[in-house]
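Changelog note: in this version the structure field was regenerated for every chain. One regenerated record is shown below for reference.
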Amino acid sequence: MDEFLIPTAAIAALLGLSAFLSLAETAFTAASRPLIHQLEAKGNRRAAIVRNLHARMGRLLGAILLGNNAVNIASSTIAAGVLIAAFGDAGIAYATVGMTLLIVIFAEILPKTFAFDRASRVALAIAPIVATFVFVLGPITHGIQVVLRALFKLFRVELRAEDDAFAMTAEELRGAIELHGTGDPTVRQEREMLKSVLDLSQVEIGEIMIHRKDLNRINVAEAPGVILLQMLASPHTRVPLWRGNPDNIVGVLNTKDVLRALIERGGNVEGLDVAGLATPPWFVPDTTPLLDQLQAFRAKRQHFAIVVDEYGTLMGIVTLEDILEEIVGGIADEHDTPVAGVRQHADGSYTVAGNVTIRELNRDLDWNLPDAKAATVAGLVLFESRRIPDVGQTFLFYGYRFEILRRQRHQIALLRVTPPRNGSTVAAAAAN
């Protein structure tokens, strides 16, 4: 009886160890790195152990796989010896089938399924044991890694550093954000904000700036009283000043500076040196990424910049508020003037002003129009149609129907956009 009891107990113990190692492998590879990082920041010691093991993922996996294969081979060998003694050569077949089923079910599928469902909790629970196991097998796994690196080098295969290999890329972050989307409007808004933060380094200020045709500019040669009235009529606290040519910006006038000067003069407007109150203009290229411009605003402690193209021609202005609105959406106050934007109709179509940006439409309406070649919806129609369309003309791009409702000279002022009802996209463009 003992000749079967002891081997059976040994096989059960080895299968249990194999199940534990399979549990550890899945738990540590599937554990949430952001959650572990947050727990470690709060002083959780087990989270610190998990993070340290993640930092040496190659050694961790090597130790687990080495131990797992060793115990599986050992248990199979013991089973084969017992069954051969009992059944002769047929015992090899019995051992092969029996141990395969036991290992797959109890040492692989069962523990890995359990660990995958609660990876972070399992990783935290077994972290000290796994850390000890990795330390004991450290010399062996290090030797194996040296051999593997030599083999990869022999076949000219470059390996990334462990930190780079397991680092989450921006695209993976976007995918993670999309996976957490729900029908809750609040969650959807937060999801869009997170995606906008990731896009800051890819979007240029030329795509979000206030275009020159929409600028409120004041001629510095006007009388101080006229300039004051124009500033009061403007919804903005900062207004560009020009001299000689509206595109020749010579300064930026702040309402607070004007009010402070008027108080010092006892409210006397005559003789007020408006040009002396203006700050020098800050010119930035229209190709500057939003993230760089945001950092520049913080470094210079300014909120206002003049945007120029590669030839130095005035293109528009960009403010700190414009960049923040790219993250959180439109920010309106009591002084903002209503502008033509987007209006939904009962048939599912939308009346859209030509200067509405594609990014705003995609963010607010959950559309998927491309914004690589054009910043505004009017610009997209011009780019795809390769013409200046007439009023009443319709186009079909990417599954969306665009109808020209109003045009101001050569500019598309108003469109009716009908999104695809089934959410499909059409790669080719057609026009009527």
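Spot check on this record: The longest helix spans residues 57-87. The CA atoms of residues 80 and 95 lie 5 Å apart.
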